[in-house]
Design a protein that fits this description.
Strand order of the largest sheet: 1-2-3-4
Helix content: under 10%
């Protein structure tokens, strides 16, 4: 009997070890999670929305006290055959955050209306149906400044042919007259699009970068016309990894930072809405993408390199880059998983880190410029 139990225990140990290795190998494809940080319940603090591509379900974590103490995962919606992407916006212009989901093979965008006053989200409709090639990405943004979210839709495939910019007309969307022509451009899988009012005319503009170039498109009067104003970098080798934009000074001047993997350098364009002159700030052994944050509250720009998850502090002197090792234990993140989210989750004035690793969500608390305390959000049941 003892021999039988020992054999069973050995079998379970070997099977468990095999299963663990199998999960680690396949999870970047099967357990892909998408996270969003927002004030979902309109109580003034930051909640977390979680979409699982494997289990095809959307949950949210409520920030219970404004200090980053998150409750159990709450179900928003499930029952999908396929669930591919998520974004947040205000579909009905009522001031709260609604959920937009890319479903099916990539042909439908569905919206779920925020009705948390009554404890739930309400299905509205399939608000957008694409045509071949199927939708790969979409972005919610109030392009015409009328209080509701419009849509920018990008088709699937390695080379995007066009972008469709669609106006929210209340019950659905209609396409603006002109779209941005993206023919021939190839994009990384990570972030390549950013909306902001770069020229300060009251309408959101677009900063877009492909593998070969970065450029700004100005929004002409909120009518869906985006004019290519400045082309910042033409890299025929196709190794422009990422961009980051930072506002500085009392005049809120926009600076643009570019990560160029072909020369393994960080580049900067100061006041990029008026200039295209490039400075080389630093050289690194390797880089895939960057995020710009002020992690220690000193009003200086720091950079996060992904997938190494190392924070590089860039002082005024060029080429003197220092490592911050507090997040190095999370350096095993695969590039196919979501980039870290940096946000002040407990409202203490310091930027915290929210990281997805092996189907777990880690909140790394920043205490006065040091990432020291680890919180793990519970798995949805």
């Amino acid at each position: 009997m003892k021999l039988l139990l020992s054999c069973c225990n050995l079998f379970l140990l070997v099977f468990s070890s095999y299963a663990q290795k199998k999960d680690i190998r396949t999870e970047i494809f099967d357990n892909n999670l998408f996270l969003k940080v927002c004030d979902l319940d309109n109580d003034g603090d930051k909640d977390i929305v979680r979409m699982g591509e494997l289990n095809k379900v959307v949950h949210w974590y409520e920030n219970l006290d404004g200090l980053g103490n998150y409750g159990q995962a709450k179900l928003i919606v499930d029952g999908f055959s396929q669930l591919r992407n998520i974004d947040l916006g205000d579909f009905d212009a009522d001031g709260d955050v609604d959920i937009f989901l890319l479903t099916g093979k990539g042909e439908f965008i569905e919206v779920y209306i925020n009705d948390l006053e009554n404890g739930s989200f309400t299905y509205h409709s399939k608000i957008y149906r694409g045509a071949m090639p199927w939708i790969k990405r979409f972005h919610c943004e109030d392009i015409d400044n009328d209080g509701d979210s419009d849509l920018m839709v990008l088709p699937s495939g390695g080379r995007y042919i066009y972008s469709s910019i669609n106006q929210n007309v209340g019950k659905g969307f209609k396409q603006f007259e002109k779209a941005i022509d993206l023919k021939g451009l190839v994009f990384w899988s990570g972030k390549f699009l950013e909306f902001a009012d770069f020229n300060k005319d009251g309408y959101p503009d677009i900063l877009l970068h492909s593998m070969t170039e970065a450029c700004m498109y100005t929004n002409r009067g909120g009518k869906g016309h985006f004019d290519k104003k400045i082309e910042y970098l033409k890299n025929k080798k196709g190794m422009l990894s990422n961009t980051a934009v930072v506002q500085r000074g009392q005049n809120q001047i926009w600076d643009l930072y570019l990560s160029d993997s072909s020369v393994k350098s960080l580049l900067r364009i100061q006041d990029f809405t008026r200039s295209s002159s490039i400075d080389t700030l630093a050289s690194w052994a390797s880089t895939f993408s960057i995020q710009a944050i002020d992690y220690n509250g000193d009003k200086q720009v720091d950079f996060v390199l992904d997938p190494s998850i190392k924070i590089k502090t860039l002082p005024q002197a060029k080429h003197q880059v220092q490592d911050n090792t507090d997040l190095c234990q999370y350096a095993e993140l695969n590039i196919f998983e979501q980039e870290p989210i940096f946000s002040d989750l407990n409202d203490d004035g310091f930027i915290d880190a929210l990281i997805v690793k092996r189907d777990n969500i880690y909140w790394i608390e920043n205490e006065s410029g040091r990432f020291t305390i680890e919180h793990i959000l519970n798995h949805p049941k």
